[in-house]
Amino acid sequence: MEAQSIISALILGLIEGLTEFIPVSSTAHVLLAGHFLGFQSPGNTFAVLIQLGAILAILSVYAHKLITVALALPSDVRSRRFVLSVLVAFLPAAVIGALIHDFIKDVLFETPMLICIMLIVGGIILLLVDRMTLTPRYTDAMDYPLPLAFKIGLFQCLAMIPGTSRSGSTIVGALLMGTDKRSAAEFSFFLAMPTMLGAFVLDLYKNRNALSFDDSMLIVIGFIAAFFSALIVVRGLLNFVSRRGYAPFAWWRIIVGIVGLIGLVFVK
């Protein structure tokens, strides 16, 4: 295992953790950075499997709330509805993702030009939505009705196009349907758990015979880096978006997309 590969895996893991839960598309950042670093992963598994680190980060931050909800399930209607709303929101991505998994990995993940364009387009949309004067009807992720959760889940499916952003699509969808910024981000956190875990299990199963020992070690390095960097983001993001909104992330997407396009044209 070369030192350059280890350093690249560490960098990409840090990028994954820092970008997974903000609406800038972690997959786009990891794939583009990997492209320019010359990092190779069988079946692009690295970008998907290191997301487990980010999942564990959010589980650790929300452990108390998750345990509280779990313990209240037998007696509390609100807790049962919340868990059901997350599962209902997860359903569209689970079905569509399983059906077109190979197309996503073999075609969309291999098209860096598309990734850059989607970063820019998504940034513009996020900027426009952030500037809209919207009156929120839902301010607590625990109280989202099931039809709203399902529609948010449909928006999440847009993120199967790399560069769109899973958190970005769910947050934009939630805001347009009457949620406030903080609860939209929080629901996106909870929806990430089954979605990313499902993607991890499916990808690991499909590529179980393609991963060498060195590949596995690089994934572990990326996983650890993603865990610690995601901890930083999850702990501070809700307060940040409550104060600043999503415009900073929109501009970041646009800048990264433009820089990526320039790099693809001029860097061979």
Structure description:
The protein is built from 13 helices and no strands. The chain has one domain (3-266). The mean pLDDT is 88. With 268 residues, the protein is an all-alpha fold. Helix 1 runs parallel beside helix 12, helix 4 crosses helix 12 (213-244) and helix 6 packs parallel to helix 9. It has helices spanning 3-19, 26-37, 45-49, 51-61, 63-72, 77-99, 101-106, 112-131, 146-156, 166-176, 181-206, 213-244, 247-266. It is globular. The longest helix has 32 residues, at 213-244.
C-alpha end-to-end distance: 25 Å
Number of helices: 13
The coarse silhouette is: globular
Tell me how many strands there are. Answer: 0
Q: What does the largest sheet look like?
A: none
Indicate how many domains the architecture comprises: 1
Contiguous uncertain segments of 5+ residues: none
What percent of residues are in strands? under 5%
- Helix amount, in percent? over 70%
- The whole-number mean of residue pLDDT values reads 88
Order of helices and strands: HHHHHHHHHHHHH
Our Rg estimate from Cα atoms comes to 18 Å
Provide the structure class. mainly alpha
